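User: Here's a chain of 124 residues. Predict its fold as tokens.
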Amino acid sequence: MNNQKPKEKIAIIDFDGTLNKFEFPDVGPPEPHVKEALETLKAAGYKIKIHSCQTATYWGRPDERKQHIEMINDFMWKHRLPYDELIISPFMDKPLATAYIDDRGVEYDNNWLQIAEKLKCEPI
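Assistant: Prediction complete.
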């Protein structure tokens, strides 16, 4: 089994609903305390990488994808939120990271039965 770990601290963070309030297709305001949290991660030596479905190649026309990328970069700059990279992968590869932060994530801790019970009741 390949148990690779990154050579540096990396936090992969989702955009909509995690860094900002989910108001898709619009961009909501920053989530409370997000700036302080990102600054704390940076001070602790983390590289912060933003990952969003909106940067995927399957996301509409190429000009729409470009608009989404610009929207995310503009949001981060406008609110002075520190980050190192906006991940733009044509293959949507899962990047290697120390932590993944996402509003739709489900934490695994040897709890498959609890996960299945929770997810079977989730609406679409």
